Amino acid sequence: MRGLKLLCVLGLGLLGFLGAAAQAAEPDIPTTYRAFVAAQNSRDIDRIRPFLQNRPDFLWVSDGYSYWGTQAVLDRMARFQTAALWRAEPDMAQAKLVPLGADSAYLHLPLKLTFGSEAAPAHYNFLVSILWVRAEGSWKIAALLTTLAHATP
Description:
Radius of gyration: 20 Å
CATH topology: Nuclear Transport Factor 2, Chain: A
């Protein structure tokens, strides 16, 4: 009986170790977010699409409006990216990751966006909050919340 208990404990320990190792082997959320930003800066919607959960309840809150559904979000992103200049620059040093559970987390960070014409580019400072969920073995964006950043009072 004692040998069986020891075998069970060792087996469970090994499963926990293997699960943790598998989790550590997948890209973490900040790394995945950097790849998402690189896809945005490349202006390639087909590179952006795999980072987003493909669901009708995908949400992007932008400029005081709610955009529902992955395709609606991609269409809006594509319209922005037609400008002569488009560059998103997240401040990863200020990023805060808020775990919500084993398969979900928020990532909050400031982001500088430059877009417009070459002659007169516009520069905006945003606060970005992203709901990440682990789906199909990788981290996906389930919701994207953006607002203009204001100076701290």
